């Protein structure tokens, strides 16, 4: 077997191993995340998402699925990829430093009951840790998609899904699968809560409180 082909087989095996572990350990949590978003976004809540490099692309992929659609036609929901706000990122980075590019936006856009999802292969990015701290102070729920535990971002989040692989490429590929699983569960539950809450005229704060009690 040629060296490039052997490397390709190792890459595929690494992904297969990571997905097997994800399937065994994290499907329930991803389903809970999708259900949680399905009760928050349809009543006026918002998802904020951020990452660096390839993880930024994954975060933006998720927000695109929610603002647009995943598989079925449905209303658009509020989801912002913070790293994609280029004028804000460059202005904040210039004035406050790169470590604050996400935290400052969380302070601007986040409201109690919203969700912040942070993606990182290492779980050690200072700007994501600062965003998590700001979000917790502002009463957002913080989720993290990271590489292997232990890592500071998983510890700083309310909940985390950690892909157990030493390969950053494998972690990012598994994160994409996790994003799609989350979207599948969101689509499954987002219609009914929206209709029920809208009919009852329930504000976001009350809906969030009811949701948290149910979970």
UniProtKB/TrEMBL annotation:
<dbReference type="InterPro" id="IPR046348">
    <property type="entry name" value="SIS_dom_sf"/>
</dbReference>
<keyword id="KW-0413">Isomerase</keyword>
<dbReference type="InterPro" id="IPR001347">
    <property type="entry name" value="SIS_dom"/>
</dbReference>
<dbReference type="GO" id="GO:0097367">
    <property type="term" value="F:carbohydrate derivative binding"/>
</dbReference>
<dbReference type="InterPro" id="IPR050099">
    <property type="entry name" value="SIS_GmhA/DiaA_subfam"/>
</dbReference>
<dbReference type="GO" id="GO:1901135">
    <property type="term" value="P:carbohydrate derivative metabolic process"/>
</dbReference>
<feature type="domain" description="SIS">
    <location>
        <begin position="37"/>
        <end position="214"/>
    </location>
</feature>
<dbReference type="GO" id="GO:0016853">
    <property type="term" value="F:isomerase activity"/>
</dbReference>
<dbReference type="InterPro" id="IPR035461">
    <property type="entry name" value="GmhA/DiaA"/>
</dbReference>
<protein>
    <submittedName>
        <fullName>Phosphoheptose isomerase</fullName>
    </submittedName>
</protein>
<dbReference type="Pfam" id="PF13580">
    <property type="entry name" value="SIS_2"/>
</dbReference>
């Amino acid at each position: 077997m040629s060296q490039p082909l052997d490397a390709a087989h190792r890459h595929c095996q690494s992904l297969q191993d990571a997905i097997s572990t994800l399937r065994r350990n994290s499907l329930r949590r991803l389903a809970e995340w999708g259900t949680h978003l399905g009760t928050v976004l349809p009543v006026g809540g918002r998802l904020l998402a951020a990452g660096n490099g390839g993880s930024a692309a994954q975060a933006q992929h998720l927000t695109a699925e929610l603002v647009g659609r995943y598989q079925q036609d449905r209303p658009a929901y509020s989801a912002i990829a913070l790293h994609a706000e280029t004028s804000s990122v460059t202005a904040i980075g210039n004035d406050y430093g790169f470590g604050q590019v996400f935290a400052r936006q969380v302070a601007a856009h986040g409201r109690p009951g919203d969700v912040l999802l942070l993606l990182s292969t290492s779980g050690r990015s200072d700007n994501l840790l600062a965003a998590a701290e700001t979000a917790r102070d502002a009463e957002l729920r913080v989720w993290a998609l990271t590489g292997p535990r232990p890592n500071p971002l998983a510890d700083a989040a309310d909940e985390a899904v950690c892909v157990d692989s030493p390969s950053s490429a494998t972690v990012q590929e598994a994160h994409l699968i996790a994003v799609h699983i989350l979207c599948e569960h969101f689509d499954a539950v987002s219609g009914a809560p929206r209709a029920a809450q809208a009919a009852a005229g329930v504000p976001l704060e009350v809906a969030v409180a009811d949701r948290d009690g149910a979970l």
